[in-house]
Amino acid sequence: MRPMKVSEPDIDGAGVQHIQIVESISRRGIDIQSLCSLLCCAYVVSQIYMVPVWVVGPSWSVWPSITDLVVLFMLVLLPLTRTQGLRPRPTVTTAKRVLLVITGGAILSYLVLTLNYFGLKTTDFFNDKGQNVGLYQIYRMCQFLTVFWFSTRVNWDAKRKVWLQRSIALTFWISCALLLANYFDLVSTPTLSPQIPRDLNIAGPWAYYSLGVVGNPVGGISFHHAYPAMQILLLAAMYLYLLPITKVWLPCCILSCLWLCALVSGSRAGFVASSVLLVVAVLSRPRQLLLLIASTAVAVVVGSYFSTSLSDTFSRAMSRQQSIATSYQEDGLAGRVEIWKERVALLNWEPALWLTGTGFGSAIESGNNGHMLYLQTTLECGLLGTGILLFLAWKVLSFLWRQGPGARVLCYLTVAILLSGLTQETLYPVPALGHFCGMYLFCLGVVLSSPSLRPQGRLRW
Questions:
Q1: Are 222 and 214 in contact, with CB atoms under 8 Å apart?
Q2: Strand pairing partners for 247?
Q3: Which of 17, 192, 353, 358 is most buried by a 10 A CB count?
Q4: How far apart are CA 71 and CA 43, in angstroms?
């Protein structure tokens, strides 16, 4: 009996072209994986300076920064990693599908509710501002999806792990240095943004940055003080994750610098979140706890000697953070309580909105944003969207906890981020927080695709 002839799989024109491009690049001695890992490192380092570098576009919110340009290169290079990257684990594949569904749901909410195709909203309470905001948020979500997808396509071998760790370290220390230099008036925001117009009608909130009237130190990260505090927190946690668990002195320096930057940032939510991460991380590492207590004792002795000068230096930061306990009674958490009441009253006006929300990007149509992550998702995406967010948060926490002690710091980070969401839209694509969601998804993508990322080593002091 003649054996059956196995036909080769059919490859369409796009597939043939893709293979030819990859083979051409390989023949020229260019390693796609190395190029991808370098682009990931460039994405991390670009977080140092998030100010728009090119004043072009329909709105100040989409003026491209260096990070936006890096994400564009990621999108261009992503198809070439299809056969070159790691074989995706089931967890990674599931995460990609979930993010695709969430992005698709946001687009559907925008089309059906924000654009009001079915006339579910009346003009008495809404306007058309949400159309542009919704487009911006969809644009950001597509960027975040690209970053996550790209980070899971890299084969994180030992050499690439080292470069990633160095990139995180460089970004963390320079970001902290710029923030502290901004606080001590060594570097001003107008010096960092000569390309930004100083007209509020053109540059929006970036005009405050270019004028030097932000009010709090922000370094080169954002026009809003909430972003630098959360960004440095995220970088510190990822830095600790990448370090060998036997390190002692360096983690203490990282946590001390994190706490100091959070103190002077002016962000009360960021300060609380950083304090939570610091306490939990130190309690889980006995050596660091002992060393940090000793370092704190030395700092107290030195501080008492220079008490007057130190008090004058940090008086502004201390007075801001001391108001955490009394802010609710004094100013309603900087006016947030009144905003929350107004937002809840809007949902009560039409009970169906509790289920569907008013539409993705539409919060601005009826007033302010929710200034609370969970209220913001309920306002725009309904309780269905908030339920999905909480479910995903639980799944992420469960996954990170199961990875063992090495990944616990990222589990603590996620808890701190969710806690900060009680007074700000931390994990939501709002302009004030720029690429924070993308950076968090990047870190999560690295962990998902490389569960054994932490290098081992001997005890080094």
A1: no
A2: 460
A3: 358
A4: 7
Between the CA of residue 107 and those of 10, 342, 437, what are the distances in Å?
34, 26, 18
3-state helix, strand, coil split of the chain in percent (to 5) is 70, 0, 30
Express each pLDDT in 48-100 by its tens digit. Answer: 999 999 999 889 999 999 999 999 999 999 888 775 545 677 888 889 999 99
Q: If DSSP codes are grouped into helix, strand and coil, which group holds residue 349?
A: helix
Rg (alpha carbons) of the chain, rounded to whole number: 24
DSSP alpha helix (H) spans, 28-157: 32-45, 66-77, 90-109, 129-151
CA distances from 93 to 89, 98, 445 (A): 6, 9, 11
The single-letter code of the amino acid at 257 is: C
DSSP 19-43: HHHHHHHHHTT--HHHHHHHHHHHH
Per the confidence metrics, is the pTM higher than 0.85? yes
Our measurement of the distance from residue 144's CA atom to the centroid of its chain's CA atoms, rounded to an integer in Å, reads: 9
The 3-state DSSP class for residue 82 equals coil
The helix/strand/coil state of 454 is coil
The upper half-sphere exposure of residue 309, i.e. CA atoms within 13 Å in the direction of its Cβ, equals 4
Residue matched to tokens 């936006």? 68
State whether residue 418 is helix, strand or coil: helix
247 phi and psi, to 5 degrees?
-65, 145
- One-letter amino acid at 329 equals Q
Please name which of 324, 303, 305, 325 lies closest in space to residue 314, comparing C-alpha atoms.
303
CA distances to 73, 326, 382 from 368, in Å = 34, 24, 17
Distance CA(460)–CA(269), nearest Å, equals 34
